[in-house]
Every structure is written in C-alpha cells, then in structure tokens.
C-alpha cells in the first residue's frame, strides 16, 4: 500500500506540474504543440495516479503506468544525449541516471498489479 501511495503521489505531482508549470517540461519536448503535450501528459498522469487505487482498475492502471514510463524513455534519452538541463540538473551523469531510473519506474508500476507481476496462468 505504501509503494502504491508513493508512486501515485509521484504521478499526481508530475501531472499537476505539467498543468501548472509546463515551462519546466518544455525543454524536453522536441516538437510542437508543446502546450497540448503538457496538457495530455498532466491529465494522463493524474488519471493514472487515481487509477492505482480502485481494486477493479488497479491492474489496468498499473500496466498503463508501466507503458507510460516505457513511452517516456526516448524523451529521457533525448534529454541525456543533447544534454538538456532539467529541474536545475545539468550534469550529464545525473541526466543519464534519471534515464536509467525509467527502468525502476517501469517495474515499480508493474509490481502494483493485484493479479500477477508479469503474466498469470489460468
């Protein structure tokens, strides 16, 4: 439950930041329309954060969250390769560490499933 609460909070805060301070994320978005991408990301992350709570939605939301983290990986690679300072962090080593953290986030989201971690036998 604590693990779900922490990841839910992380998603919620990221979603709110996308909506209230899109300029924080604009440097990482390599194409237009940045404002729509921030709106989509913000609402999606907030929805995913709430989706981790109802038991009937938990597995779907956990998988969707894992997929979201997987889809964000190329953006993090782009930020690391260029390099683009994010949230005041400009050190390439730290940017690459953040990119690698996507793997942790991916498996963390999958671990929140009720029915099974990766696959379930029937």
What are the defining features of this structure?
4 helices; mainly alpha; 69% helix; 122 residues; globular
Helix % is 55-70%
Q: Measured on Cα atoms, how large is the radius of gyration?
A: 15 Å
Task: List the secondary-structure elements in sequence, H or E.
Answer: HHHH
Main structural class = mainly alpha
Oligomeric state of the chains present here: single chain
State which percent range the strand residues make up: under 5%
Count of discrete structural domains? 1
Number of strands: 0
Please mark out the parts with pLDDT under 50 across 5 or more consecutive residues, or reply none.
Answer: none
Number of helices: 4
Largest sheet composition? none
In whole angstroms, how far apart are the ends? 26 Å
Shape: globular
| Average predicted local confidence, pLDDT | 93
What does this structure look like?
There is one protein chain. The chain has 122 residues and is an all-alpha fold. The chain has one domain. It contains 4 helices and no strands. The protein has helices spanning 2-20, 34-51, 55-81, 92-111. Helix 1 (2-20) packs antiparallel against helix 2 (34-51), helix 2 (34-51) runs antiparallel to helix 3 and helix 3 (55-81) packs antiparallel against helix 4 (92-111). It starts with a helix and ends in an 11-residue tail after the last helix.
Provide a quick synopsis of the model:
It is built from 4 helices and no strands.
What topology emerges from the helices and strands here?
Blueprint: H1 2-20, H2 34-51, H3 55-81, H4 92-111
Helix pairs in contact: 1-2, 2-3, 3-4
